[in-house]
Amino acid sequence: MDAEDIDWKDEDEDEGENEERWNEPVESLLETRNDGLQEASLSSNVGDDGNPSVSTSDARGDGMMSRMALNDNKAGMDGLDKERINKIILETSKGSRFYENERKKEAQVNQRIDRMKQQLAGITQQQKAAALVEVDTMAAELEASRDFSRSIVHLDMDAFYAAVEMRDNPSLKNKPMAVGGMSMLSTSNYHARRYGVRAAMPGFIAKKLCPELVIVPTNFDKYRAVSTQVREILGQYDPNFCPMSLDEAYFDLTEHLEKRKELSEAERTFDYGDWNSQSEPTNDVQEGEEKDSVGKTQSHGDISEQDSTQESCVCGGANDETLSPSRMQAEVSSNTSVACRCAESTNNASDPCHASLGVSKTESSTSHCAVGAVTSRKRSRTFGFTVEEVVEEIRFRIEQKTQLTASAGIAPNVMLAKICSDKNKPNGQYRIQPDREAVMEFIQQLPIRKVSGIGKVTERMLSALGIQNCTDLYQQRALLHLLFSQISSQHFLRISMALGSTRVERDSERKSMSTERTFRELHKPADLYSKCSELCQALAEDLQNEDLVGKTVTIKLKTVKFEVKTKACSVPMAINSADCIFSVAKDLLRAEINACKPEPLRLRLMGVRLSNLQSSSASTNKQGSIKEFFKKRQNPAAQSGQLPEVHQETGNGYEKPRSQNTMVAFSSDSPKKRTGSDVVVTLPSESEPQPSTSEPQTESPFSQVHPSDRNFCPTLGDRITDDSTTGNNHRRDESAMEDVSNDAIGTSEFLCPVCNIPQPCTDLEAFNEHVDVCLNRGAIRDMLKQQASEDNPTASRNSTSLAKGKRGSSGPKSSAKRRKQEKTQTNTLDRFFN
DNA sequence: GCGGATCAC
DNA sequence: TATGGTGATCCGC
Ligand SMILES: Nc1ccn([C@H]2C[C@H](O)[C@@H](COP(=O)(O)OP(=O)(O)OP(=O)(O)O)O2)c(=O)n1
Ligand SMILES: [Mg+2]
Ligand SMILES: [Mg+2]
After folding, report:
1. DSSP label at residue A697
2. Chain segment A634-684, per-residue pLDDT in tens
3. Is A186 close to ligand 1, i.e. is its CB under 6 Å away?
4. Which parts of A754-808 are beta strand (E)?
5. Could you tell me the distance in Å between the CA of residue A141 and the C1' of nucleotide C8?
6. Closest CA to A803 of A200, A142, A109
7. Protein CA A652 to sugar C1' C6 (Å)
8. Biased composition, Polar residues: where in the chain (predicted)?
């Protein structure tokens, strides 16, 4: 219905001129920004209303949705022929259910942008001036807190899965290859990226882009093993390093750099790996085309020119003499040449095939070194005392240990370090000097999309305001303050000021655990329940492995049309057994099946998540009553005993969540103490096996009482929806629940679907009565609510909403507390199943 | 607390 | 033929 008026984004417009330009020094300086007068610059592109007017839609209308277009925001993807690639993607996708759903989502984003622009039109210069004062106050505070004292590093393995596969099958090295399957790719090597083949792209599309592409399946065990090897190294430099995935981590070298002053030369010397001995020079070890054995490092004539700067060659050479007689010892290692990278940092866009293949001007020097290596070979390298050298050392050790290369970024904060690690990727590193000028110069022309946390949608929204780079972002700070929530505008402000977290925070406790699977269409209720049961069993296993229990069960459904819907239901006590989880999940599922009757619920994916987690061991285990309670809910429907299969191609689902890395020496735990009195349910599965031929027997209190449970699960019925003040309020109920469970030990219980409190019931009638009371309470509450809203018509200012993933502020983890209280006009998207 | 969306990897 | 899985955060109810 709404899919007609789609705005097409101009993707190709500025392509080709964007690449890597952001790194070049620019003459205009940011330090003039804080003089408070730079608003004048805004006047250059303002309309009568004083606000920027930028069109969102594509004047050329060449038909590429931004959502469908190639996402080239990735290392090794500069200078591609995007027009051709997007055409192939489009032609291959057009007409598919996936494509149609993407169109729908695109239309929604366009609506959001339109709403934002409407708000924009209503903003007066006066408002903006006031906002500017406010925002500049904030900016001043932020400026005062600027901190250059930390040496933060972000390290990221190059083409990780693909590199592992190439290492173990050298015949792949000179071919474009990807890891995954015809349905989905996990990643690709740099050779394949030249064709536009990248992670999260379906294999069959990748094959159209690059018919010679070799696709190999995943081996998660290997990736995990490599990850462990890498983490073992990182832990020696910062015991509090923070892994963000199997292939990357943040860490802080500040302390290590202090301690390092005391280290002997031997302690700064590391052997080449056995694999790297005589026969093969490092050069061709790594992935064939991307070997670029000459590490791409900045050439800084000005850095510690002494022994240290010389990085590999000199530095290594210095102690070579001690360790290895050969003076010339041709730096075989990848990190050898010092000054190579800077000259080539600006890629030659005209020749994409060579641009990122590492076949660069440095090549000559490399081969030169390699030649020397043949005659006399080094057994080890010694590293100096600067940050750069430490990071070189880490990357060297990683490569010698795993035969895989990594790239790294060094900066005074996490946000910048992350961007830097991509800059000289693959097999390179980049440092931003820890002073304001260097940092500001780095940031000013930086496209906002490079910043972690700014994704496709945010990029489009900001683009609609004429914001492309960080300079724009700063100049429009007043507007952003008016249009976005406090947390978002402050986030933007921090980015534009090149500020980020200066601490790498330890992994926080997990907040949820989930499992989901894509499958060929299922629509028969028995199959759906069976799948649900499998998922619950798998989830329960994972939960028990980590000794976790939780109170909120959420199911996720994706229809064959790719529409996603989630349904949640919280129960008063923490659970983690398959039976308990399933008893809740199946009711949620049943309601959805019923809701779209008489049409079948046609799904391509189902998921189950448990949140509101607590540690099982920390909680009081009151099995008795809870067990009884859940026996009532328990349903034998699907005792298929099967676990969901992992995704055949990406192998996802096999990489089970693991307890966090073992390297952490000790973290003075100040974990928030959980409510130690919560009840844990550990229900021994004593359920009778049952053929999963049909809908589960409705043994749960829900259906015992009300055959049409649609109206009674608190999360399903709209009319009795939760209200934070009363009905479904957990906080309040927790204490009550404890009382109930304590008092009710040994008695039979039903869970009231309205208040969610287990009711000790001797008979069904009493329970029904209780439910009626709750229902009335709910009705009254709704009435009061309605009345209140009539009395007090929404005096809320409109604000553009921006749902963000990941970090709200800057650090690897953050918790922003305050939220803006303004609301957007209600927009209900209840198009599901319609 | 719930549901939708965005984001990263 | 064919478009993933896990976890987190934010917004508006
Ligand atoms: N959408 C994605 C992105 C990544 N990955 C996996 C495969 C990658 O190898 C690994 C690391 O992700 P990166 O973003 O670091 O990508 P690569 O390491 O593959 O390439 P590079 O870091 O060189 O750009 O995570 C995935 O499964 N799905
Ligand atoms: Mg990587
Ligand atoms: Mg990564």
Report:
1. P
2. 443 434 567 677 777 787 777 643 332 222 111 222 222 222 233 333 222
3. yes
4. 758-760
5. 28
6. A109
7. 9
8. 40-58, 275-285, 295-312, 321-330, 659-669, 786-802, 824-834
Chain C bases near protein CB atoms (7 A cut-off): 1-13
- The DSSP line for A13-72 is TTTTTSTTGGGS--SS-GGGGGGS-GGGGGGGGB-TTSSB----S-SS-----TTTS---
Distances (CA, A) of A419 to A22, A98, A406, A443, A506: 11, 31, 14, 10, 20
**Which phi and psi angles does A243 have, rounded to 5°?**
-70, 135
List residues, by chain if needed, whose CB lies under 5 Å from ion ligand 2.
A 156-157, 160, 247
Instruction: Say if ligand 1 is within 6 A of residue A651 CB.
Output: no
Q: How far is the CA of A30 from the C1' of B3 (A)?
A: 42
**ipTM exceeds 0.95:** yes
Which H or E element spans position A565? strand A564-575
A805 CA to C8 C1' in angstroms comes to: 7
Output the CA–CA distances (angstroms, integers) from residue A53 to A9, A48, A445, A587, in the order listed: 16, 10, 21, 50
Rounded CA-CA distance A800/A802 in Å is 6
Q: Which nucleotide is nearest to A560 (CA to C1')?
A: C3
A102 pLDDT above the threshold of 80:
yes
CA nearest A223: which of A286, A283, A168?
Answer: A168
User: What's the CA gap between A120 and A127, in Å, rounded?
Assistant: 11
Between A580 and A736, whose confidence is greater? Answer: A580
Q: Whose CA is nearest to atom 27 of ligand 1?
A: A186
User: Which ligand is closest in space to the CA of residue A187?
Assistant: 1
Q: Are A410 and A430 in contact (CB under 8 A)?
A: yes
Tell me the C-alpha distance between A631 and A626, whole Å.
Answer: 8
The identity of residue A6, as a single letter, is I
The protein residue nearest C6 (Cα–C1') is A514
Instruction: Give strand B nucleotides closer than 7 A to any protein Cβ.
Output: 1-9
Q: What are the CA-CA distances from residue A318 to residues A314, A342, A394, A528, A708 (Å)?
A: 6, 24, 19, 67, 80
Residue among A158, A201, A247 to mutate when testing ligand 1 (max atoms within 8 A of CB): A247
Specify the nucleotide whose C1' lies closest to residue A570 (CA): B1
What pLDDT was estimated at residue A803? 64
CA dist., res. A610 & res. A542, Å (int): 11
Q: Which two tokens stand for residue A241?
A: 């390093």
Q: Give Cα separations from A782 to A598, A718, A772, A821 (angstroms).
A: 30, 11, 15, 22
Specify whether the CB–CB gap between A337 and A362 falls below 8 A: yes
Asked if residue A745 lies in contact with residue A624, where contact means CB atoms within 8 angstroms, the answer is yes
Half-sphere exposure in the Cβ direction for A366 (13 Å, CA): 21
The residue with greater pLDDT, A802 or A346, is A802
Report which residue is nearest nucleotide C3 when distances run from CA to C1': A202
Give residue A649's pLDDT.
79
Yes or no: say if A692 and A639 are a contact pair by the CB < 8 Å rule: yes
Phi, psi for A614 (deg, rounded to 5): -140, 160
Task: Label each residue of A482-529 as H, E or C.
Answer: HHCCHHHHHHHHHHHCCCCCCCCCCCCCCCEEEEEEEEEEECCHHHHH
Distance CA A717, CA A592 (A): 11
User: What residue type is assigned to position A112 of the chain?
Assistant: R
- DSSP E strand stretches across A289-423: 296-297, 380-382, 406-411
CB A89, CB A69: distance < 8 Å: yes
Cis peptide before A412 (omega within 30 of 0): no
